[in-house]
Amino acid sequence: MIALVALAAAMDNDFVIGSYGRVQVSTDTTGGQGDPTNLVAHGSRLEQDPYLELDLGWVAKPEDAPTFRVLVTPALAGPLFHYDGTFDATLAIRNLYVQAEDVGAKGVGVWAGSRMYRGDDVYLLDFWPLDSLNTVGGGAFYASDDTWVGAHVGLNRLSDDEWQYQQDAETLPGGVGAEWVTILDRQRMVASLKASHVFHLGETIGLRPKLYGEVHSLPAGEREVEYDIVQALPAETGWVAGGEVSVFGWARDSYAHVFYKHAQGIAATGELTVPTDGLAVDRSVNAASEDLVALAANHEGGVWGVAAGAYWRGWQDADGEDVGYDDGNEWIVAVRPSVYPTKWFAIGLEGSHQWVSRDSILARTGEQGTPEITKLSLIPAIQPRKGTFARPQVRLQYTLSVLNPDAQSWYAERDSRSQRPVQHFVGIGAEWWINSQTYR
């Protein structure tokens, strides 16, 4: 840190501070906090827990040399001290990398480190459907006004379930004391390639197609399940292929994105997930697959605006069974129209509906069912300007959730969401992004 400050002082540079954050306190009108009512993997963002990212960056522009950007992003999540009385927090480093730009030629760049490496999101669902990697590695790119091409490779070694990494204690010579020995060490390699180009349709509207792909690889290994009993872990491979088409520019903050992605093998489990269910006989996940179609859009019409988000996801595990609880589909559609009575006051009304369909009977009912939840939210807010994405924002929120009987059975019998088909959520909260280096 001291070295970075000294470098900044010695060069023609800028120090950058930015932040993304949200905080909220809520009640379910019976005295409880109110639990999120979501069946799908990516439900409405309105019921999320507090979260903070703080961007600390430096931009150094030495003469006759590449431009260097350094970004460090610590993040905090979990209950707040003022809420649970526990002087603790969950800390993660979301970005820790250096990027060099105009390396040898204008637009050519390289980077190395740990980062969130992703593209466009579905804001209403807080979801990145296509390129969304958490990676430690490096990459290269070319960027011009209209064209962007980038490649990257990274590694991880997840600590959960002793699936990629395991240590065991070995007695020291003489029988006194022990030392830890690594007996399983297999890193997953994830490589990606993406390219996009903007075609200009008139003076303001842009059309941007984008292609994206990933390759995943994990070597074979053995882990110890009991003393002198080992379990073979097969080599895994996987890939992702997809694309996006975007139209934007007809009004401020207005756009439409359509995404498609197919993932196969270990890539269908996500780069930070240890697969534990739906495995093949040899414990591999090479036969797993996932398909996803998503939509994100926003339009601003002066005194009103409307945002939308939706996706369908279908997945199949690797066990080869035609009927299984680990196979299925999920859908969600969310729309948020807003009106702006004044420059600094907004009233939003968000409606959403989500479905889940499993290729088997539901565990708690013993029948084939389709859980569904319908939500309706009222969101009056104070913000600095008109628009869906005007931030900082201070808001009230009321969400009504209606669960069908199959959705109630999704939750444990003593869970309030199982006992009551209508759920209430009342919150006071805030959200902001201020010079954020990640949410731009």
- C-alpha-based Rg, rounded: 24 Å
Spatial shape? globular
Biggest sheet overview: 18 strands, antiparallel, barrel
- Helix coverage percent of residues? under 10%
Which ranges are low-confidence, i.e. pLDDT below 50, for 5 or more consecutive residues?
1-5
The succession of helices and strands, N to C, reads HEEEHEEEEEEEEEEEEEEEEEEEHHE
Mean pLDDT: 93
Report, as a whole number of angstroms, the end-to-end distance. 25 Å
Quickly count the helices: 4
**How large a portion of the residues is in β-strands, by DSSP E?**
over 45%
- Structural class by helix and strand composition: mainly beta
Tell me the total number of β-strands.
Answer: 23
How many domains, as an integer?
2
Structure description:
The protein has two domains: 1-65 and 67-85 and 342-440, no CATH class; 102-320, no CATH class. Helix content is 5%, strand content 57%. It contains four helices and 23 strands. It has helices at residues 2-10, 81-84, 405-408, 416-419; strands at residues 13-27, 51-60, 67-77, 90-101, 108-118, 132-143, 147-156, 165-171, 178-185, 188-197, 199-201, 205-218, 221-226, 229-233, 236-248, 255-265, 289-300, 304-316, 324-342, 345-359, 372-382, 393-403, 422-434. Strand 18 (304-316) and strand 19 form a beta hairpin. The longest helix has 9 residues, at 2-10. It starts with a helix and ends in a 6-residue tail after the last strand. Mean pLDDT is 93; it is low at 1-5.
